[in-house]
């Protein structure tokens, strides 16, 4: 790294986008720009976190976030240990704090955690000394997803001030939606959400965003459509009559995009339910930056890990 240290994050942990400032986001993006160059070099690894041990604690399923953090940590030369709740002693009744304290006593410096309970990271941050990074807490926040989404939008469109972003789908159960809203607002974008009324929280306008129930109007308004999946696993009652009906009224398909008099950027945090919230011809089209989001995820997570370690005074020169 060359000049990334021209600032420090204002926080010790990354618990949510709500708790960081615009200047933190800009610093993460500047640092991610540099790491993106690193991971596209023939030698993709730097020694920055050689003296740091990171525990990835996943109490919920993940493909992208888990692999992306692990790769980011390895590209930074950190020592990495992985924990999955399904094969752990959590099943025997151990508390979250006991589990984490046992792991920390193995001299772990940073914890990346996904947990089904909103606020689990905040609770831990009051009891342990390690840096905590939220990799998704229930329906609350998914800060690194929002950072990589905004970074990818900025790469495509430049400064996001006044850009129009619509988040479409199951807003009610989505941690990606809330983190995206906080992040995009801090960067000056205009944000709307769109979906069936049953999947949009009643008081969401208190966040200062627009609500649109007509998908065609939402697409006509926006520069970027960030499309979310229906989270059936979090729904204890039926919020929509059927996935087929959802696809008909809220699915983003080529016919809908062809009716627009402009091109819009298509995004999706994954995992995709092809044929439900997005059709394959849209997901795989030139307008889609879904795989760029995944690529940028590694650089953005490297930046977050690096900057939190830098604040501890624990990084090596590259
Ligand atoms: N976008 C995202 O969080 O995907 P995973 O659940 O696979 O990590």
What report would you give on this structure?
There is one protein chain. The chain has 2 domains: 4-141 and 296-308, Rossmann fold (3-Layer(aba) Sandwich); 143-294, Aspartate/ornithine carbamoyltransferase (Rossmann fold, 3-Layer(aba) Sandwich). Helices cover 37% and strands 14% of the residues. The chain contains 11 helices and 9 strands. It has helices at residues 22-39, 64-75, 96-104, 120-125, 143-157, 175-186, 215-221, 243-250, 254-258, 280-283, 290-312, and strands at residues 53-58, 79-84, 110-115, 131-137, 164-168, 190-194, 210-212, 224-227, 265-267. α2 (64-75) links the parallel β1 (53-58) and β2 (79-84). α2 crosses α11 and α5 (143-157) crosses α11. The chain starts with 21 loop residues before the first helix and ends in a 6-residue tail after the last helix. Phosphoric acid mono(formamide)ester is lined by residues 62-65, 136, 142, 145, 269-271.
What is the secondary structure topology, with strand pairs?
Layout lengths: L21 H18 L13 E6 L5 H12 L3 E6 L11 H9 L5 E6 L4 H6 L5 E7 L5 H15 L6 E5 L6 H12 L3 E5 L15 E3 L2 H7 L2 E4 L15 H8 L3 H5 L6 E3 L12 H4 L6 H23 L6
Parallel strand pairs: 1-2, 1-3, 3-4, 5-6, 5-8, 6-7, 8-9
Helix pairs in contact: 1-11, 2-11, 5-6, 5-11
The protein binds phosphoric acid mono(formamide)ester.
The site of phosphoric acid mono(formamide)ester (CP) has 10 residues, from helix 2.
